[in-house]
Design a protein that fits this description.
By secondary structure, the chain is α/β, with parallel strands linked by helices. It folds into 2 domains: 240 residues, Type I PLP-dependent aspartate aminotransferase-like (Major domain) (Aspartate Aminotransferase, domain 2, 3-Layer(aba) Sandwich), CATH 3.40.640; 138 residues, Aspartate Aminotransferase, domain 1 (Alpha-Beta Complex). It has 13 helices and 12 strands. It has a 7-stranded mixed beta sheet, with helices on both faces. A 5-stranded mixed beta sheet has the order 8-9-12-11-10, with helices on one face. 48% of the residues are buried.
Length: 390
């Protein structure tokens, strides 16, 4: 359970929460506890830790720190973001209905459509920018609203407060994927959401060296069910990865400030490039950033006015922006959603949602901005020659 944070600011809490103190070494950092099992006391007495599928001291430290970061009461760390999402779906029963935002991570869409429909769960998708689209999609069996904000990959902002208010009116659980924003930029639980999900592989760990996921909530009834799903299925985060994520969390605020600064400069540059058609970036034309995000974050998507082969040449012509899956690391990454993160979504659905062949997604890292802009400029120079000769 979340320890009281008092009036401390996020930056202080990120550094100091989740610590395990009191052993004979006086270690300042939380130790890694690799033990799978623990010595039991006499049956019937409180014995603390029993078996690491149920709980582990290093994972518990991380879960407490995540709860503090998200202003929640309960944190649960999983083996991946998708296993965390799967745990949320285990709150449902056969025949239940989910309303999700249509601009959605491809892996989440695959989980919904190719796996969970086999268990007689129903899914409908809405734009979500207008909160009333969620309300209009409600059926008698609707039990869950699921959305990202900003969305992946078109960076749409969903009004968490309004969607959560609609959900509460209809006794529906609201789950928000806060991976792109992180708890430093926005806190969905404070805005009325019931559950926050994170892919810990992204900004919170921040170094492209962990696969993990997390759920945070404050409702006791929801926490009890999530806890059962966590240890009952066993897709838990191991102690070594928990320690890495805990280490990453300490510098999240510093990294998000640089990610945001660099991303804004990248957008300023993209606005001057003739080959760029649309740019998708939170708060691009609004200040302050809407939806109560304190900064826009480090994710930028844009479309290139060129054919698929030319776009592929562009994403393979950068050097600092590495062509790779994932996001949120200190290194800049470049992604072609239609053939990478969203390739599992049928083409007609993908394109109807705006994920066209010309779409490119950047995870802007913390390198020097001048070097990043030089890298993008030279990649555009490569395809300018291709477009002229076409």
């Amino acid at each position: 359970m979340n320890k009281k944070s008092g009036n401390k600011r996020f930056e202080t809490l990120a550094v100091h929460s989740g610590k395990v103190r009191g052993d004979e070494t006086g270690a300042v950092t939380t130790p890694i506890f690799p033990s799978s099992t623990y010595e039991m006391k006499f049956p019937g007495e409180e014995s603390g830790y029993v078996y690491s599928r149920w709980s582990n001291p290093t994972r518990s430290a991380l879960e407490n720190a995540l709860a503090v970061a998200e202003s929640g009461e309960h944190g649960f760390a999983f083996a991946s973001g998708l296993s965390a999402t799967d745990a949320v779906l285990r709150l449902l029963k056969s025949g239940d209905h989910v309303v999700a935002v249509s601009d959605l991570y491809g892996g989440t869409h695959r989980l919904f459509e190719k796996l969970m429909r086999n268990f007689n769960l129903e899914f409908d998708y809405v734009d979500g920018v207008d909160p009333k689209t969620f309300e209009r999609a409600i059926k008698d069996n609707t039990k869950l609203f699921w959305f990202e904000t900003p969305t992946n990959p078109l960076m749409k902002l969903i009004n968490i407060e309004e969607v959560s208010a609609i959900a509460k009116k209809h006794n529906i659980i609201t789950a928000v994927d806060n991976t792109f924003a992180t708890p430093y930029l926005q806190k969905p639980l404070e805005l009325g959401a019931d559950i926050v999900m994170h892919s810990l592989s992204k900004y919170i760990s921040g170094h492209c060296d962990v696969i993990g996921g997390a759920l945070i909530c404050s409702r006791e009834d929801v926490a009890d069910q999530l806890r059962l799903a966590q240890y009952g299925v066993g897709a838990v985060l191991g102690p070594f990865d928990s320690w890495l994520v805990l280490r990453g969390l300490k510098t999240l605020h510093l990294r998000m400030e640089r990610h945001s600064f660099n991303a804004m400069k990248v957008v300023e540059y993209l606005e001057t490039v003739d080959l760029v058609d649309e740019i998708y970036f939170p708060g691009q034309n609004e200040k302050p950033v809407p939806n109560k995000m304190i900064m826009p974050g480090g994710m930028v998507s844009f479309t290139i006015k060129a054919d698929l082969d030319t776009v592929k040449s562009f994403v393979m012509s950068t050097s600092l922006f590495v062509l790779a899956e994932s996001l949120g690391g200190v290194e800049s990454l470049i992604n072609h959603p239609a053939t990478m993160t969203h390739a599992s979504i049928p083409k007609e659905i993908r394109e109807a949602n705006g994920v066209i062949d010309g779409l490119v997604r950047l995870s802007v890292g913390i390198e020097h901005i001048d070097d990043l802009l030089i890298d993008l400029r030279q990649a555009f120079e490569v395809i300018k020659k291709m477009v002229k000769t076409a």
